[in-house]
Fold each of these.
Amino acid sequence: MRIVIKIGTSTIAHKTGRLNIRISDRLTEIISDIINEGNEVVIVSSGAIGMGVGKLGLPGRPDDIAGKQAAAAVGQCELMYTYDRLFARYNHTVAQILLTASDFTNADRHGNFTNTVGRLLEFGAVPVINENDTVATEEIKLGDNDTLSAKVAVSVKADLLILLSDIDGLYTADPHKDSDAKLIRTVDRIDDALYAIAGGKGSSLGTGGMKTKLDAAAICLENGCDMVIANGSDPDVLYRILDGTEEKCTLFKA
């Protein structure tokens, strides 16, 4: 299988912005094992701004664009150093790709991107993709890596996109506010009713929420790619998703 795994800020970093060592260690170990089984994995990783906040010792995520860009510039170095160090333990080489919106709208640049990913996978490398936060001001203001990961999954013709977040999946209501909220196990189409139950923004260090995940699912379903929302606090969920045994997740079936 060709799998795109989106790792959210809340998965890889603590609320302080500092690296979540336990989860990142186990996550890279499992992804390495999945690759060793013969699968191809592309990672879309959030966390540059959040980890920059932690690295710089800031009290919180900056409110201004320049501050966010500065935090991203510092955090992206830390993020890639972390992936490089952790994957090297299992003899896997990582490659950094930073994208902007024009890399999807410009045919030549989009072709270069997809060709590069394809060749990296042929070489056995693990592409780690993120938005180029230091220049993509529109993404910092309004965007998210959920949509980016869906566009990447479609572009590289992935079989499956897995969004690792801080929630098990799509619920009938906000489970933090409604004790009767039920997890929706399978979705085969995106409609207004689903958007009606989607919440607002995500964690204080990230930019995503359930609405952005539904946007990502719509992109995937329209292009024949399955998508799963799962809780990244237990990295072993990746094994169970691929085995078809995970019950606490939402599968968007193309």
Note: The beta strands are 2-7, 40-45, 94-99, 126-131, 160-165, 186-187, 226-231, 249-252.
Amino acid sequence: MVTIEKHDILLGPTERVFENNGVFNPGIYQENNTVHILYRAVQDGNFSTIGYAKTEGPLELIERHEKPLITRDFEYEKHGVEDARIMKIEDTFYVIYTAYDGINTLGAMATSKDLVHFEKHGIITPQVNYQEYEEYVSFCDTCGLNPKYHHYYRLFAEIGLVDDELRLLRDKDVVLFPRKINGKFAMLHRIWPGIQIVYFDEWKDLTKSFWEDYLKNLTDYIVLDPKGIFEVNYIGAGGPPIETDDGWLLIYHGVQETTKGRTYHAKAALLHRDKPEIELSRLSYPLFSPTKKWEKHGIVDNVVFPTGHALYGDDLYVYYGAADKYIGVAKMSLSGLLYELKKQL
């Protein structure tokens, strides 16, 4: 088992209007001893923006902005700019977040050179309705596609919304790898219920025709599907994968269905270094689970939702949302975690 040390709440709601309901699911970028935190800030009415804080070392808070860093500017994100993940490649910061318009949750992107000024590039995930989606993925059924990939199509068909052109395929938990792989950008995303990977040369390549072809061959791009009781419902990527000599370490969330409702756990898997679409191993048990009062009770109970990390020597600090209200930090040994994963190879 991996030894986990949980720290107290790092950040929580304040009286400021933009973050008076919840502060959670932080995107993390480590710059030497400094940790930049781009967190989801929720105000009453469930309207989200991205707030900013900074620590010296993994835990000492030294700065926190009084206004949002990234705001809701466009129709596709009019209800929420949510759950940012951040990665720097070469001289550019890529902030990938969930854009919520009140109906749809889709992956969107902003870039920055300085984490002060941001340029938004719009939606980067498929923009197809569920009728179109079902037509595309039907090509995959003979290839062993998990039946759960049809769940939302069937659900919306039952209530007469399946061909609603305004109700698009849900795609979130979008995470960029920290470097190009074989000369291409590599990105994880979550079409319910699993985690998929997409490779591309340029962001402009992510056109509707690109995604149509991708969905017709979806089984080729599934990295992880739910497995075991702790993630039986669905899973989603956490922070950017961590490159190690043993492969890419992925911290992700798994959702367990219980008689008392859903419980979100932090999980861990190891992916092939050159072909990260190949799963090498995953922990059969949670890395950590909701145990503290502020993880078990909040806006959404029983949630730990990892979204970023910082590494200090062998000490891996995982930052996570707790009960959709707070930000927590869990510390563990990187080598110890890799040892546990390699035991299952």
Note: Residues 32 and 57 are 9 Å apart (CA to CA).
Amino acid sequence: MFAMPWTVNYYDCDAANLLKISAAMRYMQQTSSKHLETLGISPENLYRQGMVFLLSKMCIKVHRMPKTAEDIVIKTAATETRGARFAREFIMISKTGERLVSALSLWVLADTKSHKIIRPRDFTYPLPFMPPILEGAIEDVKIPKLSDNAEDTVKTSIQVRYSHMDLNRHVNNGVYADFICDALPCDKLLERGLSLFVVSFVSEARCGDIIEVLKSSLGDTEYLVSGRHGGGVSFESYVVLK
């Protein structure tokens, strides 16, 4: 297991002085990159060889979101492969050992030019797998389908711009988390905070694309948020507030 210390930046927090889920995802992504570097599999070297790990799905359980200037540690381990996907687990803890966030992530390895999936058996680098570290805190959560009794379906349009993109020239996964949270009722999100955040990335969106974001309520605390663009479904998410 790999562990990396962090201090929560004030500019990564929301109006409730708590770490935004988008920033939490970036912290975890950076921790996984550092872990790969220690194994001699830096993302930069992979990219030069025409390979890149892309986040396919993330399931996050929030026990307590850390606040500004709080010292935390993020632990991570690659645990197994599931078909074409690599599973990686994360635990975010406080300096006293309190569990703050538990997360399961699923990744695919892709060719940077053809965008074709590279199967785990064809990945030549040694990537040691460890036993699960989540201890059942969260599993691969299925995103519910939109039901007939869903309420207040709301649609907004977002054009992908420079600030949304990353090295892969598509919308970064943390930016999608901001799109999702921006679709939720602001006052309710700040008052209650997140309990569960699940997002599945279906097709990439690039600069100039128009993403139609749809939000539907499944109840007082449950929401479905999805995005569509010219290439079809971009992302789907299921969010539960405390």
Note: The mean pLDDT is 93.
Amino acid sequence: MYKWLEAVRNNPKKKPMPVLSYPAIQMTGVNVRELSFSAEAQARGMKLVADRTDALASVSLMDLSVEAECFGSQVRMTEDEVPTVVGAIVTTPEEAEALQVPAVGSGRTGIYLDAIAEAKKLITDRPVFAGVIGPFSLAGRLVDVTEAMILCFEDPDMLRTVLEKCTQFLVDYIKKYKEVGADGVVIAEPLAGMLSPDLAAEFSHPYVKRIVDACQDENFIIVYHNCGNGTIRMLDGIVGTGCKAYHFGNAIDMRDLMPHMPSDCIAMGNVDPAGEFLNGTEQSVYDVTSALLRDCGKYHNFVLSSGCDIPPRTPWKNIDAFFHGAKEYYRD
């Protein structure tokens, strides 16, 4: 995978790598709820997306409820929306100490592991990435997102206790993805985007780095995702995690970020998944994609992507327009 990244950087014609999985429901005939409980449907959906698009890699569902549910959180599911965590399961230091680290494979994690194993059999022309949540974002789902921010100041020890257990679980979970054949994971740490650079350096980056140190090697890479608007200010800390590639949300302008990105690190982003992919038109998606490439395509370490997970009911004509814009830019 290190050689793959080097080849991507050195190739003047780069394929896009959007976070594209849920729109597969429109081709599989299953809804989001059904997809969440079927390894076969997930793998088949990933294969259909790979067959339809010339994406750089295949990325699995970015379902940030799976890990919290495994710890015992309640999850709200509907037919057309990505699952979300409801409520908190850790509210006191005593509950933090008593929190049990679940076994990998329990809850729906076994389904998602099986999906990647099957997808690797079906998709042989590009890397296959699993999706996992980041440590601070997982802790925030266990203690409540707002409470996590408060705990940074009022009870950092309680928050660290939860973070330790989240990190332990994520290391075990990611190692299992590695074992079943994944080429890497996209680790989504969106809640860290709400922190100041100093707080992110205390409550997010060190835990991500521990995961990277434990799991990443030349055959398995970790792509870091943060969709906050402060990522440029915390870029040194983000890059210090040691991930091999970084994915940024549309809250920032990639034109402002790229001059600060180390040349040996790939930066991916960041066409708006809701404003453009879901609610835009074929022409607007094409125009935004083309404009982003005109400004950032000159950087050898820039890879075009969506700003975050593309919503399930996104019109495929808009997704096609995104890929068409990339193809036109790199035509010559």
Note: The chain has a mean pLDDT of 97.
